[in-house]
Structure formats: structure tokens, C-alpha cells
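User: Hey, quick favor. My workstation is busy. Could you predict this chain's structure for me?
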Amino acid sequence: MSIRAVEGAAGCGKTYRLMAMLTETLAGHPLSEGQRVLALTFMHGARRRLSDRLKGVVGLAGRVQCCTVDAFAWRIYRRWRGLATALGIEPATEGEFDAVCDAAGLLLEQAQVRSWTAMSFPIVLVDEGQDLRPQRLRMLVALSGATHALIAADEFQCLDQALRPNPLVTWLQNAVEPETLVQVRRTNVAGLLAAAAAIRSSQAPVNGQGFRILQPGVSVPLAATLLANAIAWRQGGDVAVITPALQGGFAQSVITRVGQSPCGQQQNGPYAIRWEGTDREETQLIVSSLDLAANPTAAEACAALRALPRSGPARAAISWLNNQIHAVGRGAFTREEIEAVIARNVALRRQHGGGASHLFTAMTVQQAKNREFDGVVVIWPYQVGGDIEHKRRLLYNAVTRAKRWCNIIVQGQNILAAAPFV
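Assistant: No problem, here it is.
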């Protein structure tokens, strides 16, 4: 069994190199009948992008399982629940992610579980490995002893302050010498490259080709004008508006203003900028319209679900309810379990369905990770938390999403006198 790893700055093609490593591994260790490659990552958005990349690997179609580490952990825990009980592992539910991953790690440390898993998945590929907490890393360490493990990571792109020093990077330093990529491939725009390199090396980013820090000390109307102008002058392509903090509402106010009417002397806009939501927000939006008592009858639950606005999660909940009524013979339910079914189907739809693409999108830095856009506007408010290192990483992750240009709008003059702008 073996471990191979690749590291490098944002945009250096770590995932591309990971696909090449997979091709090389498959050539030397072909899959047997019934075997598949196990591809893991932390976030659902990264999982969808990784799944798309895997489609380009010759001969892999239908022979890969691509999922989040949490989803795979639940599969292991559910399959070996009896052994977990015998080992004294405390019972866990699907939503207790850290507990389930820790339990799955302990199970995979058992020879029979590890061998069973390796027989099905002799090759394990992990992208964005720097985001793995110790509970999830425990699973990878156990699997690496029985599989061919391929791992891509960049410690500086980890935004979890609790993961310093980074557990995966520390483990890799003792296990293997990673291949280091140095050539940025996402962009060749000099100002973008210089700004990213400066932020990464604790220096002050400066204006240059494709990179500008716009007028500081702006009000919401002026910030909206700067944003509208950036969109109007973008010369085509998609634009992401990225913010490191939603507290205080500055970014939201700016984006709302841009969508209301033309801005500034040039009268650019209005532009509809769509905020990316979370599973929790979408679930709450659906259940807020659910007119249902705490302990409804089957008929009441069915009527309430059919009264909801049409959506995939609502239809899936109705299907689940009908199955419970006709196949199981249930006549009563609880609102809590029906809300849980809706939440689970929201998550499943996001995992496997992705979502419609939009020309102008707003998101947090965390939501922007592992993605790229033609243009990026970073809105940096006063309320950015964390230490100096964390702020540098936030700015770096935002700026390096851009392929052609990036503008930064700061809320106040004094922001530029502190990290990460000095």
C-alpha cells in the first residue's frame, strides 16, 4: 500500500495533478471486478467539482464513489453498528458529524473493517485534505494502511483556526514527502499573482494589473457604485462578490443597493446579485411555510406537505410520507421527524444536484473555496474576526478565486492600516 500527496498554492492545479496521479495508480493497480475508487472531500460544493473532474479520468466511469467524508463515515458506522456497540462506542445520529467520524475512524482501525473497505475501495483519493479535523483524519490514516491513498492539500487555505498546526500536514510530513507545485495556472495576470504572493508571505498587497484596492472609507451608496462599476466594466464573464464576514450587514446592504436602481454618475446597474444560501437556510425557508401541529395524523401531514410551494425536497418528503403510510402502515407522525426528512432531502439535493449557475453571485469566503470566477469583488467590512493569520488566509482565499481581475472594497480607511493589508 502507498501514500502519495501533492501540495501547492491556490490555482496551481493540485486537483489536476491528483487526477494524473489517479491515472498512474490505476495503470499500475487496475481495479478488479466490483472494486471502485473512493473519492472524498469535506464540503458538498467541493464534492460536486471533484465529481466533475473524475469524469475526465479514462476508464473510470461507473467505477468511482465520490462523497463527503461525513457521508462515508455514516456509511461505515451504519454498516458496522453492531461492532461499534461491542467496542463500547457511544450511539450517534447521522447529524452528529464529529462523533460519527470518530466512531468510523475507530471502526476502520479494526482489521476486519479496514480489509472489508479496502476490498471495495483499493484506491482512496482525498481533495482539500487540509480541512480534515482529527476525527476525519483518523479515518484516512486507518485507510492508508490498506489502500493506495492519493491526497491534495494546501495548509494555507485552511480557514479553521482550530486546525493549527494542521493535523493532516503534520501527519504527511512523517508519512511521505509531498510533491510541491509552484506554477499558478488559474491566472497569468501579473497584479493578481503579485497580490496573492504578497498576502501569502505576510506582505502588503499593492495595486497592479488586474488587482485594485478601491477608495477606502466608503458609505453604502459609494460602495454600491464601486461594485456596479466593476460589474459594468468587467468585459464579460462571471463575477463573484465575496465577503469574509456577514456581521454588521455592510456587504448585504451594498448588494441590496446595487440591485435596486442605477448607481453613481455612470448610472450602472441595477444588477441582480444572488446570495448563495446554506442547507439550514433553505430548510428553514421550507418549514416556515409548513402548517402542521406537533403530532399530526397521516392525513394532516399529507395535506400540510401538499400545501407547501412546489420543490424537490417537498416532493421527496411527500414520497417518504406515502411510503410510511402504505408500506409501513403508519397513521401518525411528529412535526419534528417531518422537518428532519425535509432537511435531509435539502442536503441530498445540494449534494447531487448542484444548483443553477448565476452570472453574479455573492458568498462568504468559506463558500468560495475551491472555486474560480472571471472577476471577484471582495467586500471587507469592519467585523472580520480572527487573528492576523486568519485574516491573511481569508483575504488570500478570496483574491485567489479570480482568473482575470479582483477589486477590494473596504468599509473604512483604518482597515488598510492593519492586517492583512500591511
